[in-house]
Amino acid sequence: MKSLEHELHCPVCKDIVKQPVVLPCQHSVCLLCASEVLVANGYPSPELPPEPNSPASTPNTRSPRQARRPTPKAEQRPIDRVLRSGPHPPSPSMPRSPGYGRRRKDGPPLVMMFPCVPCGRDVELGEKGLTDCLRNLTLERIVERYRHTVSLGSVAVMCQFCKPPHTLEATKGCADCRSNFCNECFKLYHPWGTQRAQHEHIQPTLNFRPKVLTCPEHDQEKLQFYCRSCQRLLCPLCKLRRIHTGHKILPVAQAYQVLKEKITKEMNYILSNQDTVLAQIAQLESGITQTEVNSVSAREQLAQSIRDLTAALAERHASLTQALEMARQKRGEALAAQVAERRSLMEHAGLMAFTQELLKETDQPCFVQAARQTHNRMSKAIENLQNFTLAADPSFRHFQLDVSKELKLLTELNFIQAPLAPVIDTQRTLAYDQLFLCWRLPHESAPAWHFSVEFRRRGVVPGGASRGGIRGGLAAARWGWQRLDEVSGSSAVIDRLEMDSVYVLRVRGCNKAGYGEYSEEVYLHTPPAPVLNFYLDSRWGLHADRLVVSKEQRCARSVPGLSLLQAADHALTSCHLTSDLLVGDVAITQGRHYWACSVEPGSYLVKVGVGLESKLQEWFHLPQDMASPRYDPDSGHDSGAEDALDSSPPFCFLTMGMGKIYLPQHSYQHHHHHGNGIRDPIANGNGPSSPAGLTYPLPPRLGVCLDFEKGRVTFYDAHSLRPLWEGHVDCSGPVCPAFCFIGGGALQLQELVANRNADQTPVRRVTIQPRVSNLNNNN
């Protein structure tokens, strides 16, 4: 029982709880602590009962006559009175909460917020404050048993009705009288044959509890129901409220049984995996030891780094000081030489004295020979006098250091940080023949040396719902995370995937500080069939004036030219418009295949689908004014006279244009024919007799899946793999991907991820071993 004490502590006072109440977040706190917290936050103070062991609550200080009087009803249930008391007006010294003191019609009622310590957030108590918080009687009973077991309740509980100073120790407590008695007093106040003799006697206690929980809003109403939606106990009157309409409400006995079974199963699961618990404890203790050891090592490295910085600064200080001293010496010498030179120009010193003696020479040849050098010196001295400047700059302005940048670096000096969680680029990330994941680091993140990409296949139960609970978590763990290590750059390719599966991907960066946080998980759905790689066939005599195919043969653009203008000239008298057909360079004869393309939103009309190769060739070789055969009501042809209604059409197209995609309600239930026996692909089975379809916003990419054996074509939103429409096509012969342009438009085939990233170096692929081996063995 001693190990239980931590579970019995109040999160506010850190002591064993007294009179605990349950907050809406399901945490329990002492009633007194909850009141003090509310008062500290500026809410009005409720009336609290005195402490159970205080003299005010112990009647042995009263006279025997007072003790024999029946306790007033307000004193019988002081806790209930407090819990049912609404907010009281605050004292003049207490700060008023916003909106306090208003009537209901003047403003919204006061809503109390309680800062829950375990939750780390504010919990809304509502307008009534602690009134709606029920007492945790179960926790009180556990505390009572705990105190009795560890002898914390060794303080004797005295009889409240003995005459002092001869008060005896209490031997019984009465749950109805809410008082403690010795044997004699109990017999005295519970005479045989009276109603009091039926009172329930319990062990002596300082904290009397009500026998049952009652509704805090409806007095004396027992809590007989449990609302699973609100997770609250209800009385029969609360159950009838409109707020619980549509909620799943159970009898409290059923909720008790269900919750007890769940807790029992969870407890048995934990008890059956004690080896795993012990192993994790050992791992955590080892982690604590390593933390201490590594912190000492890190502290030593920090001190060494500071010493290195100090040494580097000292070395740099010495070199700069030496340079400064050399400059001072050199400038001093230059200025001293200039001073000596000026002093020689004094009247009786140096050059002037020598010149005076020279002028005394009377021998002309000797004078001329000796005076030349003196003349030069005198001329130079006069020039220096006229243009006097200092031989060296006495200021040392350029010897000052600008350390602002270095000081900023030193101020920002910090431990190295691991990269922040990468941000997934959802516009470029896709699932096609392979998974292509693209990301970037936030601007404020530390750089990453390389990245680690982790992925796994998402486990789904046969019913389609994700696995959950204990067994669901183990089943998901069996898939295992796989990892691509040391990925350079900001993208990765994952191959060897299963078709029609959902994969979960995440990425994190790594540098000298270790691995950073994971990015948000992204879910990618692989195509429902193997990806078919093909190119646009330009051998069928394309009309260069209307249709242009790129050099890579993966993009086509229709440019409305003179032919469309000529066809539009007959628009009032004919329904024939010029259209251009384009097919893939591959013919499908078996299996299931998937491909995707994107249509420019500004396109006028573009049709994407499949068709029989023979019929496509027949359609292509029609005259240009009939390039798009369309049923003409005035042509005299019968729409259903030549083919059976149950036969599959030779074409299956979906029409897109002007930023929309048209989805017929029925897949080719009515087919229009012409005299040449060609079924009309433009009509798409939605002629005058077909019910109208609906439009859908044009997806960024359109996926097409052909099941040759079943003759079925399914169109998808390639970004989310959501099915858009399904139709049928005649697969009695080879079938080709086909595209049709009416007016201006552009289309591009989805490039294979493998082709796009062919130049990337392969990364190391590993499988992360899940740490649930013991759990799997036990289940």
From TrEMBL:
<dbReference type="GO" id="GO:0044304">
    <property type="term" value="C:main axon"/>
</dbReference>
<dbReference type="InterPro" id="IPR000315">
    <property type="entry name" value="Znf_B-box"/>
</dbReference>
<dbReference type="GO" id="GO:0001764">
    <property type="term" value="P:neuron migration"/>
</dbReference>
<keyword id="KW-0175">Coiled coil</keyword>
<feature type="region of interest" description="Disordered">
    <location>
        <begin position="672"/>
        <end position="692"/>
    </location>
</feature>
<dbReference type="GO" id="GO:0048490">
    <property type="term" value="P:anterograde synaptic vesicle transport"/>
</dbReference>
<dbReference type="GO" id="GO:1904115">
    <property type="term" value="C:axon cytoplasm"/>
</dbReference>
<keyword id="KW-0863">Zinc-finger</keyword>
<feature type="region of interest" description="Disordered">
    <location>
        <begin position="44"/>
        <end position="106"/>
    </location>
</feature>
<feature type="domain" description="Fibronectin type-III">
    <location>
        <begin position="418"/>
        <end position="529"/>
    </location>
</feature>
<dbReference type="InterPro" id="IPR013783">
    <property type="entry name" value="Ig-like_fold"/>
</dbReference>
<dbReference type="InterPro" id="IPR018957">
    <property type="entry name" value="Znf_C3HC4_RING-type"/>
</dbReference>
<dbReference type="InterPro" id="IPR017903">
    <property type="entry name" value="COS_domain"/>
</dbReference>
<protein>
    <submittedName>
        <fullName>Tripartite motif-containing 46b</fullName>
    </submittedName>
</protein>
<dbReference type="InterPro" id="IPR003961">
    <property type="entry name" value="FN3_dom"/>
</dbReference>
<keyword id="KW-0862">Zinc</keyword>
<dbReference type="GO" id="GO:0007409">
    <property type="term" value="P:axonogenesis"/>
</dbReference>
<dbReference type="GO" id="GO:0001578">
    <property type="term" value="P:microtubule bundle formation"/>
</dbReference>
<dbReference type="InterPro" id="IPR035731">
    <property type="entry name" value="SPRY/PRY_TRIM46"/>
</dbReference>
<dbReference type="InterPro" id="IPR013083">
    <property type="entry name" value="Znf_RING/FYVE/PHD"/>
</dbReference>
<dbReference type="InterPro" id="IPR001841">
    <property type="entry name" value="Znf_RING"/>
</dbReference>
<dbReference type="InterPro" id="IPR040859">
    <property type="entry name" value="Midline-1_COS"/>
</dbReference>
<keyword id="KW-0479">Metal-binding</keyword>
<dbReference type="Pfam" id="PF00097">
    <property type="entry name" value="zf-C3HC4"/>
</dbReference>
<dbReference type="InterPro" id="IPR050617">
    <property type="entry name" value="E3_ligase_FN3/SPRY"/>
</dbReference>
<dbReference type="InterPro" id="IPR036116">
    <property type="entry name" value="FN3_sf"/>
</dbReference>
<feature type="compositionally biased region" description="Basic and acidic residues">
    <location>
        <begin position="72"/>
        <end position="83"/>
    </location>
</feature>
<dbReference type="GO" id="GO:0008270">
    <property type="term" value="F:zinc ion binding"/>
</dbReference>
<dbReference type="InterPro" id="IPR043136">
    <property type="entry name" value="B30.2/SPRY_sf"/>
</dbReference>
<feature type="domain" description="COS">
    <location>
        <begin position="359"/>
        <end position="416"/>
    </location>
</feature>
<dbReference type="Pfam" id="PF18568">
    <property type="entry name" value="COS"/>
</dbReference>
<feature type="domain" description="B box-type">
    <location>
        <begin position="210"/>
        <end position="252"/>
    </location>
</feature>
<dbReference type="InterPro" id="IPR013320">
    <property type="entry name" value="ConA-like_dom_sf"/>
</dbReference>
<dbReference type="Pfam" id="PF00643">
    <property type="entry name" value="zf-B_box"/>
</dbReference>
